[in-house]
Specification:
Residues 1-250 form the EAL domain. This is EAL domain-containing protein. By secondary structure, this protein is α/β, with parallel strands linked by helices. It has one domain: EAL domain (TIM Barrel), CATH 3.20.20. It is 44% helix and 22% strand. It has helices at residues 2-12, 50-60, 63-78, 93-96, 101-112, 132-144, 161-166, 176-180, 186-201, 214-223, 242-247; strands spanning 16-25, 30-42, 46-48, 86-90, 119-124, 148-154, 171-174, 205-208, 227-228, 237-238. Strands 1-2-4-5-6-7-8-9 form an eight-stranded mixed barrel, surrounded by four helices. Helix 7 links the parallel strand 6 (148-154) and strand 7. Bound molecules: guanosine-5'-monophosphate (2 copies), manganese (II) ion and sodium ion.
Length: 250
């Protein structure tokens, strides 16, 4: 397939980059970190969404090399940020099948000098569709290194509450679909409420994704959500603009 060949070139020729979207802590009233979001500027087709090319990378195995580049680049960028801002990195379930993942992360931390506590790995629920024991062992290993683990897009995928019991996530990210409807449907509000309460009882933080307006923010604050992310605060921004953004706090 043409996209596979182009994607190989992209990695070799520096067409991949990371944008960063701020995450705002409601308890600290400050930006607590940023999520790295992969971007591909194709020489002829322009910007291609990760929604299109990540599946191709996964089908072809290229996700391993691309994922390694993302981890290194995210750590390198985070070292240029002030204070203790964290960087959150999306990691594909297929990267967890690679037993070398922990070594790749340890190398990226050592190479950049980023403390492990400033790195957060985001995984989706689909990670538990594979071999659960191996996955849990890898997650425990990473967490023992001091890296934080967040469960991404929570509530949309293969949800099983037993995984919340078996693995101590640091954070649950509440899927955008519930946040969008929080003031529109009683069921969305009830689900957000339940996730926030459950997370708190389990000692986990919550981030509401896709917050786009003040009414959603007010309701999330009221419900005791720990942090928010979304266009209301900021769209994903270019790496060069991060320091300006985070030092110009409201
Ligand atoms: O930023 P955007 O809304 O276009 O991202 C779309 C999707 O691509 C999201 O689900 C996001 O998790 C995923 N994504 C973005 N960057 C990465 C990455 O570096 N690795 C993986 N595996 N997924 C990513
Ligand atoms: O699946 P994941 O949560 O990693 O995906 C993050 C994606 O959500 C990114 O592609 C980002 O551009 C997008 N996103 C972030 N904030 C908002 C928002 O407020 N509204 C919408 N519609 N998309 C958002
Ligand atoms: Mn994410
Ligand atoms: Na998400």
């Amino acid at each position: 397939r043409q996209m596979e060949l182009d994607l190989r070139d992209a990695l070799a020729n520096g067409q991949l980059s990371l944008d960063f979207q701020p995450i705002y802590s409601l308890s600290n009233d400050a930006i607590s970190g940023l999520e790295a979001l992969l971007r591909w500027r194709h020489p002829e087709q322009g910007l291609i969404s990760p929604v299109e090319f990540i599946p191709v990378a996964e089908d072809t195995g290229l996700i391993q090399q691309i994922g390694e580049w993302v981890i290194h680049e995210a750590c390198r960028q985070a070292m240029t940020w002030p204070g203790t801002l964290r960087v959150a990195v999306n990691v594909s379930p297929l990267q967890f099948r690679n037993t070398g993942l922990a070594d790749i992360i340890v190398q990226a931390l050592a190479h950049s000098g980023l403390p492990p506590s400033r790195l957060e790995i985001e995984i989706t629920e689909s990670i538990f569709l594979g071999s659960t024991e191996t996955t849990l062992a890898m997650l425990h290993h990473l967490r023992a290194l001091g890296i934080r683990i967040a469960l991404d897009d929570f509530g949309t995928g293969y949800s099983s509450l037993s995984y919340l019991r078996r693995f101590p996530f640091d954070k649950i990210k509440i899927d955008r679909s519930f946040v969008t409807d929080i003031n529109l449907t009683q069921s969305a509000a009830a689900i957000v409420h339940a996730i926030v309460d459950l997370a708190r009882a389990l000692g986990m933080e919550t981030t509401a994704e896709g917050v786009e307006d003040e009414a959603q923010l007010a309701e999330l604050r009221h419900q005791g959500c720990s942090s928010i992310q979304g266009f209301l605060l900021s769209r994903p921004i270019h790496a060069d603009d991060v320091v300006t953004m985070v030092t110009r706090q409201p």
